[in-house]
Design a protein that fits this description.
Protein name: Bifunctional polymyxin resistance protein ArnA
Largest sheet: 6 strands, mixed
Structural class: alpha+beta
Number of strands: 18
Strand content: 25-35%
Helix content: 10-25%
CATH class of the largest domain: Alpha Beta
InterPro entries: Formyl_transf_N (IPR002376), Formyl_transf_N_sf (IPR036477), GART_AS (IPR001555)
Radius of gyration: 21 Å
Pfam family, one: Formyl_trans_N
Number of helices: 8
């Protein structure tokens, strides 16, 4: 049996660890980060293949789904009440009192396949969008640990009859409509939208007056994030909200005294799904060997003098042990 895992880099260590710890003998686990890599990986797959998509935003087309004779399953970052794009934002906007994650079988129609299991937690009153997102992440991990052994077995995974999809399936267009403000918006509605669609900042909201569209920006117009450092690489995304298709040059400062540059032009499906630009605003920078010495090193990413959110971060890498000499 071959299990193919599709997972964003930030969740990869956890996803990989749980699957490999639970996979029975004879089950091979293959992990990829993008749909393009998945297409290449399945070329060598035969009978007995299953797909697990874990908190990943790319939509899997029908021709790829058909390659998995043991089924394809998705960890959706919301309860079945919130199918579609940015579910944590809509749950926050509607003040959902519980939230979580869903495992479901994938079909050609997005977020409509049979529900396998659901995890829920209560949401503290007055929580903003990022709290809902963190609850979804925690419950997805809980479901992964609970279901990993069954999902890495060739047996069919039965749906849970007591759970079914509900609510309105939201699209990127629906999301964009919520960040386009009207001049007559009430103070309460403005606060509610910022709480639900804005965190960690209000960049991206727009207002149209007399045919002229105004876009709310950060102090420099830059929006982005410095992601957790994984696999000896600095990564994240950044774009200028007024010029979202302009590719930016990122400055990476190590230990406060040495600068490196990298271009933010890699595809990020999660950023596109969130409604920012065309998705080609990601960056990855391999950390040089000289900094993989086991000592802590400070890493900061900035663009046009503005540090990205998420940083600075502390990086350290233990060098690989030296093999014993041959006598």
């Amino acid at each position: 049996m071959d299990v193919f895992g599709l997972c964003a880099a930030e969740h990869l260590p956890t996803f990989k660890g749980v699957l490999e710890a639970n996979a029975p003998a004879g089950c091979e686990v293959h992990l990829v980060g993008h749909l393009s890599a998945l297409r290449l990986a399945i070329e060598k797959a035969g009978q007995g293949a299953r797909l697990l998509s874990y908190l990943h935003h790319e939509i899997i087309p029908a021709d790829v789904l058909r390659r998995f004779d043991l089924g394809a399953y998705n960890f959706h970052p919301a309860t079945p009440d919130y199918p579609g794009t940015a579910p944590e934002a809509w749950a926050c906007y509607e003040k959902a009192q519980t939230f979580g994650a869903t495992i479901h079988e994938m079909t050609e129609r997005v977020d409509e396949g049979p529900v396998i299991d659901v995890g829920r937690l209560p949401v503290p009153p007055g929580s903003h969008r990022l709290v809902y997102a963190e609850i979804a992440r925690r419950m997805a991990h809980s479901l992964l640990c609970k279901m990993a052994r069954q999902l890495t077995s060739p047996d069919r995974v039965p749906p849970a009859s007591e759970n079914a999809w509900g609510g309105t399936k939201r699209t990127t267009a629906d999301y964009q409509a919520m960040v386009q403000l009207r001049p007559d918006i009430t103070p309460d509605e403005l606060h509610r939208r910022i709480l639900s669609f804005g965190p960690p900042e209000v960049a991206g909201f727009s207002l149209e007056l007399h045919g002229v569209r105004f876009v709310m920006l950060t102090s420099s117009g830059i929006k982005g994030h410095f992601d957790p450092i994984l696999h000896d690489a600095v990564s994240g995304w950044a774009l200028h909200m007024a010029f979202p298709t302009r590719r930016l040059e990122m400055k990476i400062t190590v230990d406060g005294n040495r600068d490196f540059t990298v271009r933010a032009d890699r595809y990020r499906a999660d950023v596109l799904e969130a409604g920012h630009g065309d998705g080609y605003c990601g960056f990855t920078w391999e950390i040089p060997l000289e900094y993989r010495d086991g000592l802590p090193h400070s890493m900061e990413v900035s663009v046009a003098g503005t540090p990205l959110m998420g940083g600075p971060r502390l990086y350290s890498h233990a060098p690989s042990p030296t093999p014993p000499s041959q006598s």
